[in-house]
Specification:
The structure is a homodimer. An eight-stranded mixed beta sheet of chain A has the order 12-13-15-14-16-17-18-19, with helices on both faces. The longest helix of chain A is centred in the middle third of the chain and has 26 residues. Chain A is built from nine helices and 19 strands. Helices cover 27% and strands 25% of the residues of chain A. At the A-B interface, β9 and β12 of A face β9 and β12 of B.
Chain lengths: 393, 393
């Protein structure tokens, strides 16, 4: 018995010595603990609750996971080892979805949502490191399209304030559905990825603008119907071309031409990137779609609207943007597509299918697969780390 | 019966026509509604819950308020008319404090917390208006005091990027306990207050830095003991003088001398302002305490430590900083104190008492009372609108 207690105590000590706290935990809070095998122990004090579960993003595992109540009224569960990266999660407290009071929250699913950050061994490219840092700023501008003030987030590279004669290329970088303009910096750490790449001489200094991807009526997230998506994207296209770019060109030292302008986006933001940039080659020379499912005929007549699919005809898709591959290759200096190997078929198959079809037709596509990651931020961080060095070369 | 239904429908229509949604409600969400009399109707869907209450900041009323379950499983309550301004709130769901899923969250009480914004009739000084806007930026710096990267928020005034030869005075502006460096911009709207004042020619363009007011160990909020407060403030003083100011002076075009430097803070931040600036007149010429309760001997020997009190001796308080009123008046170009008339006695009496004692002793104090507001952001917005025009004159 004594030996057993000793053994248990040793095990607990070992656990305490190695279990980590997530960077997303509020300072001073006793948040979930991450074990070395990447299993996670979640806790919620709810003495009167009858059932409590934890549920979350794909990288967290299958879930939801039932939690067990202790004598102290604290419900706990240790989930199976999670995939590295940033995962949203929440508790189902007697059927009500609630956040973990110990966690910072992030806009996901259109809601303030708790999240956990599972470190990836050896990956420090998205860490805040001791290198020169760019600035992340708020940018407000009044939109005639929406009749409202809009909020965008702007990254200016290290040295921007000091090198007052230097002008920079511009990347428009868009979030996915249910997230917002803060996603790429708060969840994605795009500013740290760029700081690190620029410090290493691997990426060119650039200005990045991350805009709110909703521009219909009250700027609510886009519902999943093709009709609504079409009109929502058209409104956003108006904002990007006629309001966002002129605002940024006026307020920052950009090089205001297509050869120094890129558009990229993840998921819905990738769909928007294809929708806008392939139709407006006069505005962009660099195009990247990160996990955006392919809808080849969103601008076409409604009768042909088939939604997401991998029956990609390189002659007709996107109104024939790829029909003449030589012309396309000349016009676009980079056409980049990426997807995580653990993403659902609607992403993996439509993107992979389009890439194969386009490459067979002679279109130059840089294709990047993120191994073992889902439709989550770790995929898009890796994507961005691959993409940014290729821009404006 | 028909008439009754018609009457009810008319009443509902009238309500719909006039009830407002809070600016803090997430886009697309059906958040709490604010009636013209400033009563608020809160809702939470929780079919299985046994008791649900809404509770919150002082301006919301006495509370907590019991909610009533409808046949659809939605709990509702309409609270009494609220004071205008920004109020934190939360639900007690079978005893567990949870956020309103329809609300954006803000760091308050050390937690992500829901909030509601009740417009003040006629007050547009803190609105985002069509005037030139300054920039709000993230600033990271590594602290030897804490051994960590610290995050501050910096406001640069309109024209900062264009007027590259112009240097500006610096205001250090601090949040209260349980809040963080994002409070003054997200809850307080300090950037819009300044934009509007500068556009009207009422305040001088200035740089504002809002730092995280915690600098002990893991940067957790400061517990309410004088011993801990003393050491926490001393650590923060070190950060401000030896890390924050040098960082800002290096990264931004400040005028790096005491005559062009101010420190101000609310509540705990006001205590910190007095603690630091009265001890370091070589660093600051402008000092403002917004609702910071008075602890006249926090630096004194521990045996005399009496905590907050209004027995304020102008000769000995703050190590004799006020003992020679003529010298004090010459040294400090502005000494500003403010409090809301609805704040608890620990704020109202200690601040009001100190002001009366100091004024009787010949110390020049600008004293500002916010009528009808509590220990909440509407007090501090009004404070800042009064204070900012007096800085650097």
């Amino acid at each position: 018995m004594k030996q057993l207690i000793l053994l248990a105590a040793t095990a607990l000590l070992a656990l305490a010595a190695t279990a980590a706290v997530s960077e997303t935990t509020l300072p001073g809070a006793a948040g979930p603990t991450i074990q070395p095998d990447r299993s996670i122990t979640f806790k919620l004090k709810a003495p009167e609750a009858r059932t409590v579960q934890v549920a979350g993003g794909d990288g967290l595992g299958a879930g939801p996971f039932d939690m067990t109540k202790g004598a102290d009224g604290v419900w706990t569960v240790t989930t199976p080892p999670a995939v590295p990266g940033f995962h949203y999660y929440w508790f189902n407290l007697d059927g009500v979805r609630v956040n973990d009071p110990t966690s910072r929250t992030y806009i996901g699913y259109g809601l303030e949502t708790s999240a956990i950050e599972i470190p990836e061994p050896g990956a420090d490219y998205y860490e805040l490191r001791d290198v020169p840092h760019g600035a992340v700023r708020d940018q407000w501008y009044f939109s005639k399209v929406t009749g409202r003030w809009r909020h965008a987030v702007v990254y200016t590279p290290p040295g921007y304030d000091a090198n007052i004669k230097t002008r920079y290329p511009l990347l428009i970088l868009q979030h996915g559905r249910g997230e917002d303009e803060t996603g790429w910096t708060r969840q994605g750490r795009a500013q740290f990825i760029l700081d690190n790449l620029i410090a290493a001489g691997r990426a060119l200094p650039m200005i990045v603008v991350m805009d709110r991807g909703y521009a219909l009526k009250d700027e609510t997230p886009v519902p999943d119907t093709m009709d609504y998506t079409r009109s929502a994207f058209a409104a956003f296209e108006n904002v990007v071309l006629h309001e966002l770019i002129p605002t940024v060109d006026a307020a920052y030292r950009t090089i205001p031409d297509r050869d120094h302008r890129a558009m990229a986006g993840l998921s819905m933001g990738g769909m928007q990137t294809l929708f806008i940039s392939l139709h407006h080659p006069e505005a962009f020379a660099y195009v990247a779609n990160l996990s955006g499912p392919i809808v080849p005929d969103l601008r076409g007549p409604r009768s042909t609207d088939q939604g997401f699919h991998d029956r990609f005809d390189s002659k007709t898709a996107f109104e024939g943007a790829f029909a003449d591959s030589a012309s396309f290759n000349k016009k676009f200096k980079l056409f980049w597509m990426g997807v995580g190997t653990q993403e659902p078929a609607v992403f993996r198959d439509t993107i992979g299918g389009a890439v194969r079809t386009l490459q067979a037709a002679g279109v130059k596509v840089v294709y990047f697969e993120s191994q073992g990651t889902a439709h989550e931020w770790q995929t898009w961080r890796r994507d961005f780390n691959d993409l940014a060095p290729r821009l404006f070369r």
